[in-house]
Amino acid sequence: MSITAFDMNNPLEKTLAAMLVSGRFPHAVILEGGTATQRLSLAKKIAAALVCSDIKSNAPCGICSHCKKAFADSHPDIPFFTAEDKPRAFKVDFVREIRNNAYIIPNESDKKVFILENAHTMGNEGQNAILKILEEPPTYVNFIMLCSSKSGFLPTVLSRATVFTIGEAKNDDDAENRAAAVEAAIAIAKAVASVDDYEIVKAAAVFEKDAKLLKITLPVIQEIFASAMREKFGVAELSEEFGALPEELARKLSRRALPDLIEACDSLMASLRMNANHNLMITALCTTLRKAVSK
Ligand SMILES: [Zn+2]
């Protein structure tokens, strides 16, 4: 596997690739979990994809001049800041430098992508300073903040960023569970695309007595929407697992709805990680997905 392309067998990388192709990648993302090397390598792929000349189809292409510079760590529009993984190692001076730099338009590409390693070690002063930029970022700016755990961030910063977790627990992921999750996810995705509001409530009934099923199904729902989004934006693929569903969803759902649905799945998974009440989670699943699709 090339280190300069997203690994389409990895659900997280697949989702990121789909969001990038959609052109609606969040301004600020937090990559947590995994090893420091995994986080940095993923951040580089995202940054390369954002500056890549081929952003609309298969970024990062790995061959354009932007990609080459990005992977050689020499792209002038991908500033990199790093600090040790210990309290307050990420100095407030860095944040000031980042702030000044963020308001200078990019040099060679249309984007400026800041990679901030161990960004969670910013003290409160630093986090409040970065928050100001996250609240009203220049349109060309993206932040990729890397940390072992997002728990080091202030809630205000977290609320401005989309969190992606590397290497979610895979213990439950045996074949039988996968099959049940795929079945439930397909029912939910079909219901989301249906005109009848009640369909999704019916499809979600399967989770009522099965909290674990909900947990393993949410990422699969997201995979289906990511697959539909790639279809929508012309990155064709064959997904035997989901049959013709991604294609059908790509036809029925708007260019706006699909990225919103992927984000909605993220926020649902985040609530689940925070041990939200199970019945409320099922209600949230229905309302959140319904809302994303009706915009
Ligand atoms: Zn490229």
Keywords:
alpha/beta, globular, binds zinc ion, 2 domains, 5-stranded parallel beta sheet, Zinc Finger, Delta Prime, domain 3, 5 strands, 12 helices, 9% strand, 295 residues, Rossmann fold
Summed up, what is this model?
The chain is 52% helix and 9% strand. The mean pLDDT is 89. Helix 9 packs across helix 10.
Structure in words:
- With 295 residues, the chain is an alpha/beta fold.
- The protein has two domains: 11-166, P-loop containing nucleotide triphosphate hydrolases (Rossmann fold), CATH 3.40.50.300; 175-294, Up-down Bundle (Zinc Finger, Delta Prime, domain 3), CATH 1.20.272.
- Helix content is 52%, strand content 9%.
- The chain contains twelve helices and five strands.
- Strand 2, helix 4 (92-102) and strand 3 (112-117) form a beta-alpha-beta unit.
- The longest helix has 22 residues, at 211-232.
- The model has no long low-confidence stretch (mean pLDDT 89).
- Residues 52-54, 59-61, 64, 66-67 line the site of zinc ion (ZN).
Topology:
Elements: H1 11-22, E1 28-33, H2 36-51, H3 65-71, E2 80-81, H4 92-102, E3 112-117, H5 124-135, E4 141-147, H6 155-158, E5 162-166, H7 175-193, H8 198-204, H9 211-232, H10 245-252, H11 257-273, H12 278-294
Parallel strand pairs: 1-4, 1-5, 2-3, 3-4
The protein binds zinc ion (ZN).
